[in-house]
């Protein structure tokens, strides 16, 4: 495997991580390699995004549109469905790769902004599932002492 020399260092590293994602996930004789190309590209780019994030390299400006484009190309699936269906497999692969690297890693590979978005979503869900507070006068009997 070779990477174009006319890209900056960060793009070369991200590209190598993407290709390593393909190597680890899509061997030529595996059934998943025959999946729609959009699925395999989403998986490989997600691996690259996570490996980059673990090393402080934010590839989201490139990776998010790339993943969105390929995920949208899968017939009879929404981009959300494709990303959701491939997320755990890509996460496990990225984690396995990160565990073998003897590098300084600043995070677990969670891409920038994902934790904040997850926390915001969880807070909204808690708000919608929280029981409503009673408004107005209390229905409890008042105790009057003299």
Report on this model:
- By secondary structure, this protein is mainly alpha-helical.
- Helices cover 59% and strands 0% of the residues.
- Helix 1 crosses helix 2 and helix 2 crosses helix 4.
- The longest helix is centred in the middle third of the chain and has 22 residues.
- The model has no long low-confidence stretch (mean pLDDT 83).
List descriptors.
0% strand, mainly alpha, single chain, 5 helices, 146 residues, globular
Low-confidence stretches: none
Structural class: mainly alpha
Q: What Rg, in angstroms, do the CA atoms define? A: 23 Å
The coarse overall form would be globular
- The ordered H/E elements are HHHHH
Oligomer: single chain
Whole-Å distance between the termini?
90 Å
- Give the tally of β-strands: 0
Mean of all residue-level pLDDT scores: 83
**Biggest sheet record:** none
- Note the beta-strand portion: under 5%
Helical coverage, percent range: 55-70%
Number of helices: 5
Produce the secondary structure layout.
Elements: H1 9-25, H2 37-54, H3 60-72, H4 79-100, H5 114-129
Question: What is the compact description of this entry?
Answer:
The chain has 146 residues and is mostly helical. It is 59% helix and 0% strand.
């Amino acid at each position: 495997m070779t990477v174009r020399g006319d890209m900056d260092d960060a793009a070369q590293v991200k590209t190598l991580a993407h290709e390593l994602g393909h190597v680890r996930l899509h061997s030529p004789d595996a059934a998943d390699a025959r999946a729609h190309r959009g699925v395999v590209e989403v998986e490989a780019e997600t691996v690259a995004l996570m490996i980059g994030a673990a090393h402080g390299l934010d590839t989201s400006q490139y990776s998010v549109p790339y993943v969105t484009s390929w995920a949208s190309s899968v017939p009879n699936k929404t981009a959300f469905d494709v990303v959701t269906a491939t997320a755990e497999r890509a996460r496990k692969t990225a984690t396995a790769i990160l565990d073998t690297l003897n590098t300084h890693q600043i995070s677990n590979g969670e891409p920038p902004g994902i934790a904040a978005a997850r926390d915001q979503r969880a807070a909204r869900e808690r708000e919608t599932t929280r029981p409503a507070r009673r408004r107005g006068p209390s229905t409890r009997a008042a105790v009057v002492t003299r």
